[in-house]
Amino acid sequence: MSHTVASNRWTGALNIFLLVLAGVVSLTPMAWMVLSSFKASFEVTAYPPTVIFSPTLENYATLWERTPFLHYAFNSMVVTVSSTALGIILGAPAAFVASWTRVTWPAVLTLAARMAPGTLFLLPWYIMFRQFDMIGSYWALILTHAVITMPIVIWVLLPFFDNIPRSIYEAAQVDGCSPLRIFFRIGLPLVAGGLAVSSILAFVFSWNFFLFALVLSNSDTKTLIAASFNFIGEGSTNWGALMAAATLIALPPLVLAIVVQRWLISGLTLGAVKG
Amino acid sequence: MSSQQSPKTQLAALSAPAVIFTVAMIAFPFCYSIWLSFQAFSSVGTTSFNGADNYVRMVSDGEFWNGLAVTFYLYILSLALQLFFGTILALVMFRSKKLPGIVRSLFISPFMMPPVVAGMMWLVILDPSLGAANYILTSFGLPPSEWLASPGFVVPTLAFIDTWQWSPYVALIVLGGLQALPPSVYEAAEIDGASPVKVLFRITLPLLLPTLVAAMILRSVDLLRFFDLIYITTQGGPANASNTLNIYGFRVGFEFFQLGYASALMVTLSVIVLGAVLVLNRLRDAVAW
């Protein structure tokens, strides 16, 4: 018996050690990014790197004064919020119908957007949007980002709708409720939590998305992520401002992800595994 | 009769916007891209059917074969690393029964930050002359590395960054699988006096295989289409050493504006991704219990 107690204590210590190690490895680079964003320009490229320094907001001021950071942030908000809303408007009724009828192939079809490389879609979109003179418009970005958000909404909401007992629908039908009424009056209110989770996840993924805005935006509609390139160009001389930009861009998705962490894995895996 | 027809019509109406959107923005462009891959573009923008010329060109294009090799090198290396570290982290998290919420938040942060931001962050840390990483290496007496600037080391560096970002994601998936395992199995093994190592390799890991394969499928789809991190850090360089098929196809399309050839490259990559998913799905069926 004493043998197992000793080995338990040993594996317990190993366990804590590995957990702390993993935490340190995960955290250190991000902490370094945030720390560097508060370093004065002479300190951020100091070699050997400094850990103790007097913090300054100089880099954040630089972003405000020398780059259209707020304008890019505004563009990101327009594209992200609109594409999330569009994803919900399209995806929520589709998830309800898929759950009701048990016909899921249209939902599966939307996964094509998750399997094929983005450029496969970007090439024809580019030609299509050029045809309608929409390159550089918010609409081009909102529509293409909805290709990211809609499947997330459908696949996150599907289990929420599946959890509603069918007897509720049947009782409502007996009372003469049409499916349209059932969706708006019964289904939607019952999946309010799912709507919150799916819109937050859709927001995060739309915010983080790089490729489409890289080609379909112009200097007026460029999102923060697509503008990262500009920051890197300037960052070759100014790491502090680059890390300040990185910190600010990462902040909204990180805060939101922590809010929905309980549902994160089932949302991210789009029905492939149960979280 | 009309009362029976009406619910169906209403259900169809509810799903119609999503179906129309999917056809217009996903299915049609998908087919359009396949059509494009059989077209030649003239300098004035008109297209003409050129048979399989784009595909013939692809087979004789050294950059295509380089891209294919880089794609698979990066894919296999990253997948192996993040499955290994992800599984270990999952086992560790599973054994620490009470995991504070803050620890979970800490582990989801790397993969919820934009990959582009991860790229900006690691560019600074891994800078060959002033980066913190080389300072740490040299202070331990190890030689400094060129990291992303070295043709020989750029793919392992990208695999390392992606592993840093996505191992916790694999861990959370595997953790879900561990929590779903029937506890009776462990109890029986404990009564039999099996050692922890034996339980791990004879019981836990075999039972986890379906979850591991599911994680492999999810990561394969992303890794074969690896884009953001590479484009923000190296754009395929140095000397095309990180020029994956996805990066190469993007550059052919939007730097050289050869839309037909780019489509052929992207159709080929799509077939590769689909093939990987089908093979892994087969594997998942084979290990199901």
TrEMBL record, chain A:
CDD domains named among the record's database cross-references: TM_PBP2
GO biological process: transmembrane transport
Principal place of residence: membrane
The keyword Transport is annotated on this UniProt entry: yes
Residue stretches spanning the membrane: 12-35, 72-98, 105-127, 139-161, 182-210, 239-260
The UniProt record lists the keyword Membrane: yes
Compartment(s): Cell membrane
UniProt-listed Pfam families: BPD_transp_1
SUPFAM superfamilies, sorted: MetI-like (SSF161098)
UniProt topology in membrane: Multi-pass membrane protein
InterPro entries, A to Z: BP-dep_ABC_trans_perm (IPR050901), MetI-like (IPR000515), MetI-like_sf (IPR035906)
Gene Ontology CC terms: plasma membrane
Entry keyword set: Cell membrane, Membrane, Transmembrane, Transmembrane helix, Transport
Record domain ABC transmembrane type-1: where: 73-260
Record family assignment: Belongs to the binding-protein-dependent transport system permease family.
Identification of the protein by name: Carbohydrate ABC transporter membrane protein 2, CUT1 family
Source organism: Consotaella salsifontis
From TrEMBL, chain B:
Protein name in UniProt: Carbohydrate ABC transporter membrane protein 1, CUT1 family
Transmembrane segments annotated in the record for this chain: 12-35, 72-94, 106-125, 166-187, 199-218, 259-280
InterPro entries: MetI-like, MetI-like_sf, Sugar_ABC_transporter
Keywords: Membrane, Transmembrane, Transmembrane helix, Transport
Cellular component GO terms, alphabetical: plasma membrane
Membrane topology: Multi-pass membrane protein
Family of the protein in this entry: Belongs to the binding-protein-dependent transport system permease family.
GO terms (BP aspect): transmembrane transport
Domain ABC transmembrane type-1: 68-278
Superkingdom per UniProt: Bacteria
Species annotation: Consotaella salsifontis
Chief place of localization: membrane
Subcellular compartments: Cell membrane
Lineage: Bacteria, Pseudomonadati, Pseudomonadota, Alphaproteobacteria, Hyphomicrobiales
PROSITE patterns: ABC_TM1
